[in-house]
Amino acid sequence: MIRSHLVYGREYRSGTRLESCSQKVHHRLVIVFELISKIESIETIAIGSKISDIARLHKMYGKGRWRKLKGFGRVRLTDGSEYDAELHWYEAHGIGRKELKVKQLLD
Questions:
Q1: What pLDDT is stored for residue 31 in this prediction?
Q2: Is the Cβ–Cβ distance between 3 and 34 less than 8 Å?
Q3: Threshold 0.85, pTM exceeds
Q4: For 7-105, where are the alpha helices, taking DSSP H only?
Q5: What is residue 80's DSSP assignment?
């Protein structure tokens, strides 16, 4: 069971200060969800220098072979409703999956 909090399109675990978000955004989007299935149909979107946030990923999580991935899974929102969703995240060997976010609810 993974609990994720999406704030401004970025993931923050509970206890993390929101002031650490340095990205400028024009809208405020907060989605709290729980991943309730395995992620399927995983595809690579970008690798290494093709990732626009690669410098930030190195600074926040460490150097690694970063990949931006997408896949599909089932999520449960805070109101108890369940949806199939398109998910995006970053991942590096030895570091793991970071910044899991819902890009689109499909149901």
A1: 74
A2: yes
A3: no
A4: 54-61
A5: S
pLDDT tens digit sequence for 43-76: 999 999 999 999 999 999 999 999 999 999 999 9
3-state SS class at 62: coil
Rounded Cα–Cα distance for residues 80 and 34 (Å): 10
Residues in the chain, how many?
A: 107
Beta partners for 102?
87
Helices (H) and strands (E) in the chain, counts: 1, 7
Share above pLDDT 70 across residues of the chain, in percent, rounded to a whole number:
71
CA distance 3 to 12: 10
Residue pair 45/71 in contact (Cβ under 8 Å)? The answer is no
- Tokens 């340095």 -> residue: 22
